Amino acid sequence: MQSIDFNVKHTNLYEVIAEKLETMILSDSSQLEQKLPSEQSLAASFGVSRPVIREALMLLKARGLVVQRNGEGSFISNPPPQELTNTINRMVQMNNIPTYSMYEIRVTLEIMASRLAAERATEEELNELSRINDEMEQHMHDIKKRVELDIRFHTKLAELSGNPLLGIFVTSMTSLLETMLTQALELPGTNEDGISYHRKIIEALRTRDPEQAEDTIRGHLVASMRNYEVANESAQRSSE
Questions:
Q1: What residues does 66 pair with on adjacent strands?
Q2: Are 74 and 36 in contact (CB under 8 A)?
Q3: How many distinct helices (H) and strands (E) make up the chain?
Q4: Under a CB-based contact definition with an 8 Å cutoff, are residues 174 and 229 in contact?
C-alpha cells in the first residue's frame, strides 16, 4: 500500500473554503449553471492563495456541485444520480452486501413508484413509456441495447411517480444491477417475458389501477430475479 502522510491539520483550509462555497451553492438552486468567480477573485475574497481555491473547487467537482470547462472557468452543476450510485456501490462492496439485498430495495421502490404513477402519470408520459418498450422489442437480440432500454424504461417509470427522490433512487439501484440484468437476459425467453410484463404495467397505469400496477411490477421483478439466479447458477456450473 502506498505510504500515507498522517501529519495533517485538523481541518485543511481548502476544505473550509469548499464548505463555504457549498453552502452558498445549496442556498439558492436558481444559481444552477451560473459561472463562479475566477480563482483569482475567489482567492482575494477569501484571503487565501489560488492553489487553495483550486483544491476547494476540485473537492466541489468531486461532489458533483461544480463542473470545470476548459478556457471558460467553473460552473455550478446539479449532482447527477451517478454520484449516489457510486457512493452506494462503494458501500455495497465494502460491506459485502449481496445482490438479493439490493434487489429487495429495488422491488420496494418500484412498487411505490408504480402505484404513484398510476395516479399521476399523464397520457403523453405513458405514451413515451410505451415507445421505450416498443424500441426494446426492436432491439430484442441486442443484449447491450436491450439492457440500456430496460434501465431507461424503469427509470422513466420511477419519474412518472412525480416524486423526484424516487426517480433518483431507482436510477441508482437499477444502474447498480446492470450486470445482473445483462446476465438474466441471456436466458431464452426472458426478452419476450420482460416486454410482455412492461405492456401489462403500462396497461395498469392507463386504467389508473394502483393495485394492478403493484401486482404486475412485483411479478415482473420477482421473475427477473429468478432468471438471474438460474443464469448465475448455470454460469457457475460451466466454470467448474
A1: 76
A2: yes
A3: 11, 2
A4: no
Q: Where in the chain is the domain with CATH 1.10.10.10?
A: 13-76
pLDDT greater than 80 at residue 4: no
pLDDT in tens, 25-35: 888 878 888 99
CATH of domain 13-76: 1.10.10.10
Which grid coordinates are listed for 67?
463542473
Range 82-239: architecture per CATH: Up-down Bundle (1.20)
Residue 126: alpha-carbon gap to chain centroid: 21
Upper half-sphere CA count for residue 166 (Cβ side, 13 Å): 20
- State the number of CA atoms in the 13 A half-sphere of 171 facing the CB: 19
Is the Cβ–Cβ distance between 113 and 129 less than 8 Å?
A: no
Q: Please give the DSSP secondary-structure letter assigned to residue 38.
A: P
Single pTM value for the model: 0.76
